[in-house]
## 1
Amino acid sequence: MKKKLPTPIKDGLIGLAFGTGMIIPGIAGGTVLLIFRAFKKVVGAVANLFSKNFGRNFLILLPFGVGAILSFAALVIPLNLAMEYCMFAIICLFAGLVIGSLPGVTDNVKDEPRKKSYILSFGIFFLITAFVGVFSVIFPTISWINDIFRDVPTYLYFIMIGVGFFAAAGLVIPGFSGSLLLVAICFYQPILELFKFKNVGASFGLIFSFLVGAILGFVIFSKLMNYFLAKHRVGTYYAAIGMIVGSLISIFVNSKMFDYCKSSSFGLVDQILGPILFVLAIIGSYMIVRYLRTHKEPKENA
């Protein structure tokens, strides 16, 4: 008889995959949890964390959290270097991951009638997400972002709380990547740079502020997802799809990407490696979608 892994070890391994989804743009944490059939377990525990069952919910989340932190720590430095020396190629990889995984999200609404309210939901969230990157081109923000991360004014700590809050949406909205949002608003690389700890005090303070926002966002978005998936499931998925498609525009059309493509860093490595990674990412992430379809658990996706 096959021996099953003890639940804490199994959850810790899922946490490793979840942490990968946290830091790699294009891989949504919520989708990772769906693949390993842990979505309701984690989101339910987070949504009800601050209740009379705090101890029980905390113990449920602990192995996931440990695994996520370990994988996050392991990937910070490699991703930092990749974004510095071959940004276009890495963004192509991220875009491929998004496109390949998109059918896994659209599956949730493919048999549903296309109501005007659903199309409107898609359109609104598509425009909001796409405009984030376009806005940074029309009103260049990258120099301002670089300046505030260099000077570290007091208000940056509050900005980091807000950025962490909205990035946390990617942890619980299937198909939506919070780290991809950070790329679109040009905060992704500056946040990775903090882990070099060039200014130890400021780096710790900013990382802590981001984590405070992310924890708040994780709890609040978990509650919202529990509610909206129960009451407005189809409309919620249309909104998520709108954000995913809009983010594909924002990760390429933003001031950071424009500056990089005009610089000497953009060369043959990006031009050759980018399309290859793009295609491989689409194939790889779509294979995950196919696995999810084959091993679909109805209760998990309700």
## 2
Amino acid sequence: MSFEPTDTSPTSTPKPVAVVAGASGFIGGELLNALSTWGYTTRTIGRSPASADATWDRPDLIAELIDGADLLINLAGRSVGCRYTDANRQVIWDSRVDTTRTLNAAVGAASAPPRLWINSSTATIYRHAMDRPQTEDDGDIGEGFSVDIAKAWEKEFFSGSLPATRRVALRMAIVLGDGAALNMLATAARFGAGGAQHEGRWFPHRRYRGIGPEASGPTIWRGHPPTHGRQRFSWVHIEDVLRAIRFIDEHEELSGPINASNPQVSDNHSLMKALRKAVRMPIGVPAPRWLLETGMIVLRQESELVLKSRWVLPSRLEAAGFDFKWTDIEAATKQLLR
């Protein structure tokens, strides 16, 4: 199979090719549109041959797709919006680590490898932080299931020597847009359940235990100390994610882990207040841990989304001159939920 530029007329200059893996999510859809406006021809890697130019079960086609591409962006990964059963834990691991390993092999074998490879990562790699912000240079790596996933993901990404390819692990905070995280919290706010979520006592469980050959953290999870709804909430607007990707593309000095997180960090209380205002619901019943966990069982979600304190700052992006457009949580939620 051959992947030629769309415009092949003799007088035209072929557009650079951007390969996007995992483009079926809401970030991927927005990214494909943006890449087209930036002058790229886009090709995709995914699970379904009906919606992708190459699928994960055809590493030969993936290698052909990547060889000669200018840019590679990997967003592949099963959504963490689920209960962390043993089966789901393994799928979340495989969908990140195995796919990144496949791409690494393809880039390493390419005669004309991409000049830039941006791989999705997560700001959840840092510890539960109530005392100080976490940056790329002085942040403390956490422990447990979600952190182990992130560490293994980045380890696979940065493995091996790829001298012709600049690599950036984009440690994204919770992305606000037409995705599961914002929609779930906005729905709660619309129905009057948009109060702050409070950490507290709950039955110990094993779902957050570490995973992989370097599993970390306790086997039994017992929760964090009470936060009273003041756990930090690091977030980033989808528009700023796209702007950051383009900025990284244009700034060759940027490589390694890069935090994509708004410098104006909110907290859970302020987030839920902003959501209530955005959906015009004056009432917001607070959710103590026992009530939150009961709701999460019904929704088939995990409370980690709202109870872990994520206090992450984008020091490398800001040092390079990147300016975030969306820094006010109330303005961002109002614009996204209008």
## 3
Amino acid sequence: MRSVRQALSALRKTLRAAALGLFRTLGTEIRDERTGQPVGRAFIIGWGGRVQVLGLTAAVFPVPRPQPRLTYWRQEFAFASHPLPDAAPDADLASAPISAGERTLVVVLDHRSPAQVSALLNHWCPRFAPAEDVLLAYGGPAETFPAIPWPQKVFLDDPRLRTRDHQRELQSYHAIFRQVAAWMEGRNFTHVLFMEGDHLPLVEDLTTRYLHALRAEAADVLAYELERFDHTLHPHWLNARSAGWDEGITLSMLGTGHFWRREAWDAVARSPLGSELYLELHLPTAAHRLGYRVRPVPASQRPFVHSDPRRIVRPPARAAASGAWTIHPWKAALP
């Protein structure tokens, strides 16, 4: 019976992927009315007094188009995106030099076997970070946790981390934030870099580069794929709205590669604000609403970090030669 369910699930995924491929290949090209940039293709169908948009995942919302010539028989709407919320950066923070007292904790999340996790941590240390500055957040089986020979580690026993269908089951990293914040008590870390196990470092001065980028933006948090989702057609927002999430500013970011000032990390760890959301919405939204400045990582780094492994067009060595600091998601053997 289990094999039949697995086969049906695989068939549904195949059919869904085929349908999405059709929509995104033959559909109408949609451009962002605000920026003029293409955001994808989709089929747009009117049915039952509603408009169905099939195949589009961009965070855009419908807007009426101006009508220079008055007509009563035809009206148009287009799609636009929100600019990221921003405030004037703190000039003093932006110009402050990096001091010797600043220390970054690298949190590596993994769930694999002790041998695989050990290989990853030994890849990180000491080339990319000192061993005493790397904390393993382990989400694998409880029985294998003691066998991982790494002194700095925390075990994650949270059902909202251990999901299968991550988006629909609203996977959460809130427990990770709480446990890491508790682990840092009494330790002199000033910043936190969070990396999933398939997010690999490529430059030896990685944390220093993040510190400089944080300074340049006078930010509290740096994130990949940072977008504003509220009041858009993005499925994550629509799902959150159906569950009663309020209509304030809601941000989204990739769940890996984010860099935090410790004060912002600790504040999100303490606050339940938005914790019922999927992790990619919860983390930046909570930080923003708590008054912290959330900004995107440097544009030069965005081509190397994605949510979809099919978008990786350069292996680690070539990515590093092109100026990449990190690469994600790298599912093959360690470089």
